[in-house]
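Sequence, please.
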C-alpha cells in the first residue's frame, strides 16, 4: 500500500460567531485554539466576516491606484520608526514594493498619508484605508487578549495594549518577467509582536513549519493570517516561535497585500508564569523599538539582541 502524505495546512479559526464574547464558552475555547495554533505553527488563518466585500474591494482597488503613482511621490513615505518607510526599486527584491502608515487605526494617520500621496485629496482612499486599519487593529486586539488569557497573564494585557503602536504596511508584489526569479520576498521572520496579513486573491505566501515542510497559504476573501513576530517569541519565552516565511510568485498577475504589524513603545519581558523547569528564562527584558533599530542597522536576530 502506498501512503500519500498530505501537505500540511494552517489551522483555521472562525471569529465570525456572534457568541464569541469574553467569558463565554466559545471565547474560552477559542483562547485555547489560538494558543495551540501559535505554539504549533507560529500562525493561523482566521475567518472574520466584519470585513465586508465592499470594503475589501474598495481598499484593494485603491492599492493599485496608490502603487501606480510616480516613484518620487511614493518615496515621500518616510517614517520615524525603523523598517516602515517606502521600499522599492531594489535590485535584491525587484518584485517587491511597499509603504507604511504609522498609527494606522487613527483617522489622522489615514488623512496624513493620503494627503502626502495626493495633495489635492483622495477621500475614497482615506476612508477605506482608515476603515481597514481600524478593523484589522480590532482583530489584533481580540487575538492578543485571547493569548494573554490563555497563558493566565491577563493582568498584563491592558498595560501592553496601552503601549502598542500599529503600522499598516501596504504591499505590491508584481508578477515576474520571463527572465526573473519568482521570489517576491525572501525568507524572513517578522520583527513585530504580532502580524495580521490579508491579500487580494493572488496567493504567494509560503510558511515554513517547524519540521522543515512548507505550507502554501490559500486565503479566502474574508480570511486573515495571524502570525507571531520575534517580539512575541521572546515574550513567550520560546513557547511560540516566529515562523520563517516568504513570498513566491506564480502566474502573470500582480499581488497586492496588507500587513498590520504590532510594535510596543516600551519594554517587553517574559512573564514569570512562563518560566519554569521545562522553560528556563531565555530572554532579558528588551525595548522593542531599540530592537527594531538594531535589526535595521545590522540584522541582529532577537536571540543575539537580548537572549540569555
Amino acid at each position: 500500500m502506498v501512503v500519500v502524505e498530505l501537505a500540511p495546512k494552517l489551522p483555521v479559526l472562525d471569529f465570525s460567531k456572534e457568541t464569541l464574547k469574553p467569558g463565554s464558552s466559545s471565547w474560552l475555547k477559542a483562547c485555547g485554539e489560538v494558543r495551540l495554533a501559535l505554539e504549533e505553527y507560529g500562525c493561523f488563518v482566521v475567518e472574520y466576516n466584519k470585513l465586508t466585500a465592499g470594503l475589501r474591494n474598495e481598499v484593494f482597488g485603491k492599492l493599485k491606484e496608490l502603487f501606480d503613482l510616480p516613484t518620487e511621490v511614493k518615496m515621500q513615505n518616510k517614517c520615524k520608526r525603523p523598517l516602515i518607510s517606502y521600499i522599492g526599486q531594489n535590485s535584491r527584491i525587484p518584485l517587491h514594493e511597499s509603504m507604511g502608515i504609522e498609527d494606522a487605526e487613527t483617522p489622522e494617520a489615514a488623512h496624513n498619508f493620503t494627503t502626502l500621496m495626493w495633495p489635492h485629496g483622495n477621500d475614497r482612499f482615506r476612508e477605506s484605508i482608515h476603515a481597514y486599519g481600524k478593523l484589522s487593529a480590532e482583530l489584533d486586539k481580540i487575538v492578543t487578549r485571547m493569548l494573554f488569557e490563555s497563558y493566565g497573564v491577563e493582568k498584563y494585557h491592558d498595560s501592553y495594549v496601552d503601549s502598542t503602536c500599529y503600522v499598516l504596511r501596504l504591499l505590491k508584489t508584481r508578477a515576474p518577467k520571463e527572465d526573473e526569479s519568482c521570489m517576491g520576498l525572501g525568507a524572513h521572520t517578522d520583527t513585530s509582536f504580532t502580524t495580521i496579513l490579508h491579500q487580494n486573491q493572488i496567493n504567494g505566501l509560503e510558511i515554513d513549519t517547524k519540521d522543515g515542510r512548507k505550507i502554501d497559504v490559500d486565503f479566502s476573501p474574508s480570511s486573515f493570517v495571524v502570525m507571531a513576530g520575534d517580539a512575541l517569541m521572546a515574550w513567550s519565552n520560546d513557547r511560540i516561535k516566529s515562523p520563517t516565511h516568504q513570498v513566491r510568485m506564480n502566474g502573470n498577475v500582480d499581488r497586492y497585500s496588507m500587513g498590520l504589524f504590532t510594535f510596543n513603545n516600551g519594554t517587553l519581558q517574559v512573564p514569570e508564569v512562563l518560566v519554569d523547569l521545562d522553560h528556563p528564562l531565555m530572554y532579558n527584558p528588551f525595548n522593542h523599538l531599540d530592537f527594531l533599530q538594531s535589526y535595521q542597522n545590522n540584522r541582529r536576530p532577537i536571540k543575539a539582541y537580548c537572549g540569555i
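The longest helix spans residues 123-150.
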